[in-house]
Design goal:
about 210 residues; alpha/beta; Rossmann fold; five-stranded parallel beta sheet; 5 strands; about 15% strand; binds adenosine-5'-diphosphate; binds magnesium ion
Length: about 210
């Protein structure tokens, strides 16, 4: 299914360091002369980015959890077909900032829809496309939110986007949900995100090199 390419996702709570680590990892891929495509969820295509705006808008307070789950899946359905699968067929390494695991944890655990139900909703959306490697960066919720607020205050929503505005109990559920992800799927690596940026990057590259023999 993943054909010639490699599909890698970065997951974890707000502010855990996904964007920071993706930058370092793609710098490494460039140095190695490996072709890659960088993308993100929700979003990644024109249609998916429109759905992203609906999902993150703090004004959409009345959104029901099940609507949220379907919107994420709809955004993903377009993203896999229009962008991820074609790039993998060309033999590229595709890096996505969030993917299926975020739905499993945010909607399945955080919104209490249930992991099985979220997997079921996503089954047709992903069409069998599971990541080859998923890096989950974990930091205690308090530290993560502080980091994320610094970033989003610079880029748009004053008090954080719709999900960042959730209460501490929600974020604690997300944290423990991500911890259990390796029990749900293969290829998930939990990394301590509360360490030196370079050390984490070194570990990420190490896992990649071990698996693909570089
Ligand atoms: N290991 C780390 N230690 C300290 N600060 C970090 C670390 N990783 C990222 N940060 C900082 O935390 C903030 C959020 O990081 P970011 O990579 O944007 O997280 P995410 O994309 O997961 O929300 C940024 O200001 C970033 O510089
Ligand atoms: Mg980010």
């Amino acid at each position: 299914m993943n054909s010639k390419g490699i599909f890698i996702t970065f997951e974890g709570p707000e502010g855990c360091g996904k964007t920071t680590q993706i930058k370092l990892f793609t710098k490494y891929l460039k140095k190695m002369g490996l072709k890659f495509l960088l993308t993100r969820e929700p979003g990644g295509t024109k249609i998916s980015e429109k759905i992203r705006n609906i999902l993150l808008d703090p004004k959409n307070k009345e959104m029901s959890p099940i609507t949220e789950a379907y919107l994420y899946a709809a955004s993903r359905a377009q993203h896999t077909r229009e962008k991820i699968i074609p790039a993998l067929r060309e033999g590229k390494i595709v890096i996505s900032d969030r993917y299926l695991d975020s739905s499993i944890i945010y909607q399945g655990v955080g919104r209490n829809i249930g992991i099985e139900r979220v997997l079921d909703i996503n089954k047709t959306a992903i069409n069998g496309l599971f990541p080859d490697i998923s890096y989950v960066l974990l930091i205690p919720p308090k530290i993560g939110l502080k980091r994320a607020r610094n970033v989003s205050s610079k880029s748009g929503y004053k008090d954080g986007d719709r999900l960042e505005q959730e209460n501490m109990e929600f974020h604690k559920k997300i944290y423990s949900g991500f911890m259990k992800l390796p029990e749900i799927r293969k290829g998930v690596f939990i990394l301590d995100g509360n360490r030196d940026i370079k050390k984490i990057s070194h570990e990420i590259i190490g896992i990649f090199e071990k698996k693909y023999g570089f």
